[in-house]
Fold these 2 entries.
Entry 1:
Amino acid sequence: METHTAEWLSLLARWVHIIAAIMWIGNSMLYNWMDRNLRPGKDHNETKFGELWMLHGGGFYRLEKFRAQSSTLPPLLYWFKWQSYTTWISGFALLILVYFQSRGAFLLNPANDLSYGEGVATALAFLATGWLVYDILWRIPSKGSGIKIVLSLLLLVFAVKFATDTFSGRGAYLMVGAMLATLMSGNVFFHIMVSQRKMMADIESGQDQDMALYTRAKTRSIHNNYITFPVIFTMMSNHFANLYGHPLNWAILLILMCMSALIRHFMNIRFTWKPWFAACVATFLVSGLLLFLVFQFGAKPAHASSAAASATDGPAVTFDEARPIIQNRCLPCHSETPSTDNPMYAALATTTGGVHFDTPEQIKAYAERIKIRAIDQDTMPLGNMTGMTTEERTTLARWLAAGASIH
Ligand code: HEC
């Protein structure tokens, strides 16, 4: 696709995606909050769940939740579905525009022998399989949901490990997020809407509300509520190369997802469970400790450890020796005039956020980030598309360790 067209489309999709997601997740939070704050009103009876008063924008709202009976259907009834569908559709468009463009530069891991076509097919199969496995598991009738919750968590561990083994770190985080978001929209489309339509048909034909349909819709709606925090993290994870670029990126992702879902849980029960805040803080601290252990004692990127270890011993490196490496390995994308050797460079050059290494001053200005991305984390050159060698990383590391002088 022509680069500028792709950029404009990506802006439009991103904008719509964020607005729709805010509306949808905002609703999920609000409805959950309302449910947990219902109180029995004066005229409480067995058809009512409870009622609640709210003040917003200078007006009072009185809300009542009840079981519908054939006689109670109002002429105008609002229900929400397009927030969810719009979020999914715009998200899928972004997946294509960002991750399936540039021959999968952001999606694929250059160390894996996956062709572009195979990578895209695997990504799509990952979304579909995630939904099918989850949906079948939760369709199986059972007394309690304990075992299903444990199985779902095990499946999540498996999915995260599969994604990080298959895709690039950045691609893996995004794909796990896209898969979970697909479960959320799938829940709306295949369960919540279906149950609600059936409920309406029953009531219109003179029957009272079937509580089994209510439970089915509500269970999936609560799943969605728990998935929101983890998904929001994955959707902004592309800003955190230190996380997705880490060799233990799967463990980091699992810790952050479990932490945020637990915090969501404590926030949900906060009205009836006093120590909720302490529990949030404890969850936060334990996760922080686990992350500390991963970063302190976990494996380091293979290139990074050797490059960093040999950065200080050996001869000092001058700018004249370091610059050609940057010119050959980084400039194809990081330049005012990107290389034409590969059409993808020009496309990617528009997404570097204007980080250019054309002049010595520019290189100097970004020295710290160059060290982080190319030496410490090994997340640049992107997908190692320019084929940077370990020796070159070591040379660059020595120049940076000696103060990154450009004179
Ligand atoms: C194939 C294209 C490509 C090559 C080659 C490339 N980069 Fe990048 N670079 C990108 C893209 C795309 C981004 C923006 C996305 C991101 O940050 O991951 C980026 C972002 C960056 C950033 C800014 C973001 C930050 O974390 O500060 C730095 C610094 C960087 N690259 C350093 C390098 C260095 C150093 C090299 C050479 C060793 C290099 N890049 C080679 C495509 C490339």
Entry 2:
Amino acid sequence: MTTAAYDLVLTGGTLLDPAQGIHNERRDVAFKDGKVAAVADHIPPAQSARSLDVSGKLITPGLVDLHGHFYHGASGTAVHADQICLSSGTTTGVDAGSSGFLNYAAMRDYVFPAHRTRLLAFLHIGAVGLAANRVLGGALHDMRIIDVAQTVKAIKDNPGFIFGVKVRMHYDAVARWNAHEAMAKAREAATEAGVKLMVHVSGTPIPLPDVLEHLGPGDIATHAFNGNPEGILDNAGKIRPQVRDAVARGVIMDVAHAGVHCDVAVANAAMAQGIIPDTISTDVHIAPPGRTVYLMNDLVSKFHAMGMSLSDAIAASTTRPAQVLGLQDSIGSLTAGMAGDAAVWEQRQGRFVWHDMAGHNVEGALRLDTYATIKAGAIAWQEGRLTRMGEC
Ligand SMILES: [Zn+2]
């Protein structure tokens, strides 16, 4: 039995925690019983069972990925959460609709509990989620796949695990003549269950305003900065008025970069017109050959290179997604008493290039490279070398 006051202390680091208003200040961070126990100028290592010298490194809250695919082994394109998340400083991953009401139970009972990463879910409005994605693209062509009542029941039966409804408004997933109905049913399910609605808005077969009109405060337009037709810009490159209205009423503009769902030219044009990503997320999945799916550390670095301050990029990947989930009192910050989830970064200086599938490159001089990931007050990942960019 240990008599130490703390289980782990990070010493000598620089803390960036937007929720606490701490921006690059010298702090030690101590953990006890899975939670943050203290944040102070100096915490003697002797008070802790274990200490990690992180001098010269940046400490942030563990990142929260609001859109990924983590139903590993059960959905053809889902990744192994611990390999992907913990290696990229991510301690919470939200599965965006890999399962529906017919097949979520194994996610809850077998797949998610096999991981150290905190994993939460949005339930797809289609009964089997994305299990058939590679052959049916989201499987909303036949409306018999949607059962609002059973979806609502599954959500209500699983508080703390299911946080919302997902619907895929993509021409491969839903036919033009079904899309309005699918959208309306997803809205109905989210409203009845009292949860958030997340809509894939890239490649929608119906006009984007017809989709956005269903979204209210805290609902999520995911892949918001895509370069497909029916995007957020009009033909003159201006933000469409219905998009401004949606942002004004609190609709969350989520990145969900993936390989093909974030066009640098669209994101730059939006940011220049004051539409800043609310949340930076990956849409991490097993992509077809030739596509790069960046992980959270690269996306934070990329959006920083595109003009967001590092504080804003970290807020968009910690406290903002935590707020969307209603979990801002437990994750997304290293305030004492909150979950002991942190990321420790090497701030690599150099010339880095991030691309998109539209052919645009972003160049930057700073890349966050994971030095260690702390989950529930313990070191969950530590490797003293650069991870390969784009590894997924
Ligand atoms: Zn996705």
